[in-house]
Specification:
five-stranded parallel sheet, homotrimer, alpha/beta, serine acetyltransferase, domain 1, 2 domains, UDP N-Acetylglucosamine Acyltransferase, domain 1, globular, 8 helices
Chain lengths: ~300, ~300, ~300
């Protein structure tokens, strides 16, 4: 060990040769978390002009600013698409396909904006603490999460691998809200607080749905792993449903009927009919004086 | 579609004209997440001198460094206040009011420091894994969250819109701890781990209160939305209460009495007297051998 | 108040003198969150070459790139170690000790890579939504959390204070997953989604263990605080155990036996034998039509 640093490099090189699957070299760039993050931030500026930027935009400048943002976003999306399509041998990677993916994505952004407008309205209507639309756009993590998911969902539907997941994972890291790009979500969607929310790949969610922090819409028999790939594994939530904090709803055949309300901490593996309230009943609690040692069980008073 | 990029810009401009409420241009700067984030980081340096900075400060330099930090923070707070006050037509936006908001905020920081000193002590006393005060300041997300909330609370009480929420949302993104700037919180406050904690706008929390991850202190009838704005909707927690992980306490009339302990995963919509332990009773569990298919219900052994 | 800014500085200086324990000056640098964050990002590049970097690495360049990364990481680790060892009067801070800590840490990275390879495999096998190893490395927060924890655990075992906790807290902030550097974790470890997971300092976890979001492996009698420092306070999880979302397992004597499955939202303070399924039984629910006001309790249908 005359030169520990040389030994370290030597052992690492041996490890890079011998342990496969977690190295990537000699075959072109991967998308990097940093560039995907920057791309998502710029996408938010295009979706909410005047927000998420450092300086004001005058009405005169708007068209020029928009044209320059579109050009820049398109160029970087083209580059990320080339990186991710190359990773999957089944993908067509021609210049023409990449360009048409880019164009189609950007042409759908006005439709995404229409949905996001409905999401801002739903947050304002649903939260007595909300003071203004500006507050919702600048300080509600749920809005950031759904803005990125709605965008990533377009790329997911177009068959783009990896990049949509990196986008939703970027916003998961910022907000604690993990929505798979595969999930189909209707208008007027509102997640309050949001930390710990998980929405699985094959969820279908109607319009005017409201979720609180810690809600999981997850898969049933996770033990089966890759064998379940591609099947509907996550719940269906119909229109105007509200699900309170910490509720977990499981399984691909589980349907929460329209206008139903699911209480906090409920764990559900079956469907609920429309127009129901489904909450925890009186749980048995152990209530005792801190001085006593006995701790008799007691019904919740 | 001879020029898809021109089409994209054209459709976006139409969207910006037609879909209102999620655009902001032609009317001055908004506060930006980036500048609020930087301002919060600098505020932490002023609150904990020598921490959160890249280099050491000698005792001689401290006064000069402090003066320069105060000047820089004051200038940037003035700018952010001008931005947010302009958004609300009911606000007085004169130079004199802005300056007095800035001065009063900064003059209260020594009192904030006194509270934060008590919070560090509470974390050290409450967590056997804590090795030193330095560890708590540098590696406990709960301390960062309460430092920003205590500061944002001053601006919230002074009637400043939006900015206090952007501050607490910045630290929510970093820590998973969501404390509304409106919440009133006593001394010696300790949140351990903290991810998923939600503390609502009208909570009142006494001194020596300890919360674990996933605790929600939330509102009851959230369905009523904006109609409830301004009413007391969130619980009151008296002195020396401990609330374990995942417990949810609901409603503006709910009071947890002094020195009581609330167990993990408890869901509570009623008050608890002082000096009680309130925990989940023996829940019915379904316990079976993995080989068997029957799955008889069984009491927890 | 002729000069409020001078008053502010004056009061802050008084506060810095009078309120001890939350200031640090005149005694050398502390580790800073920013430099620890950058160091962790660079460590991930060394562990997963070709990932986490902006540009591609050709096979020819790999050895030179690795040597330069090792040199840079070693230099910065030396600096961070000097900072943290100085904080603890019981630590030996000689140049020789620091150098040997650095060398030993880096020489163990190939063994860490072997474990991380098994973790990537476990994620791929366990999640039907996973499409490729690249997706797991680039978009699964659980992998980032365990990569940093496995590295921080080496420094923790070597007796380094503070720095290991700052590393795991950095990744906690990014992922919502809080694993103490003291926890001992076997191979093929998979955390899905992960937000809200807490794994305490004295946990022992076997191989092929799978955890979902919100799982807590926590201490029992937290009220005792510092008196419990150093004792085994957190559970033992044997090989091939799966623990579903939101389950909380408490206490240092609690052992979850090999191949057992713990259901979602279960709260457990006792051991479970091997090969068991331990889930919530039929909870009583309160189910009613939204129109009715009565709300009769009902068994889950």
């Amino acid at each position: 060990m005359g030169n520990p640093q040389a030994d370290i490099v030597h052992h690492l090189m041996a490890s890079y040769r011998e342990i496969g699957g977690i190295n990537h070299f000699g075959s072109g760039d991967l998308p990097a978390k940093g560039t995907v993050a920057q791309w998502c931030e710029d996408l938010l500026q295009l979706l909410f002009p005047g927000f998420f930027a450092q300086g004001a935009i005058s009405a005169d400048q708007l068209e020029a600013v928009t044209a320059s943002r579109v050009e820049s976003l398109a160029g970087r999306l083209r580059m990320e698409l080339q990186r991710v399509l190359r990773l999957d041998p089944k993908q067509e990677t021609s210049e023409a396909r990449v360009q048409s993916l880019v164009d189609e994505f950007l042409l759908q952004l006005p439709a995404v904006r229409q949905l996001l407008r409905s999401d801002v309205q739903a947050a304002f209507d649903g939260d007595p603490a909300a003071r203004s639309f500006e507050e919702i756009i600048l300080a509600y993590p749920g809005l950031e999460a759904i803005a990125i998911q709605r965008s990533a969902h377009l790329l997911h539907k177009a068959g783009v691998p990896l990049l949509p997941r990196m986008m939703t994972e970027w916003v998961h890291g910022r907000t604690g809200i993990d929505i798979h790009p595969g999930a189909e979500i209707g208008s007027h969607f509102f997640i309050d607080h949001g930390t710990g929310v998980v929405i699985g790949e094959t969820c279908r969610i109607g319009s005017h749905v409201k979720l609180y922090q810690g809600v999981g819409l997850v898969a049933k028999s996770l033990a089966a792993g890759q064998a379940l790939s591609g099947t509907k594994r996550h719940p269906t939530i119909e229109d105007h449903v509200t699900i309170y904090a910490g509720a977990t709803i499981v399984g691909g055949d589980t349907v929460i009927g329209a206008r139903s309300v699911i209480g906090a901490n409920v764990f559900l593996m079956q469907s609920v009919a429309p127009d129901m309230v489904y909450a925890l009943g009186d749980q048995e609690h152990r209530i005792r004086d801190r001085q006593s040692r006995s701790g008799k069980p007691a019904q919740k008073p």
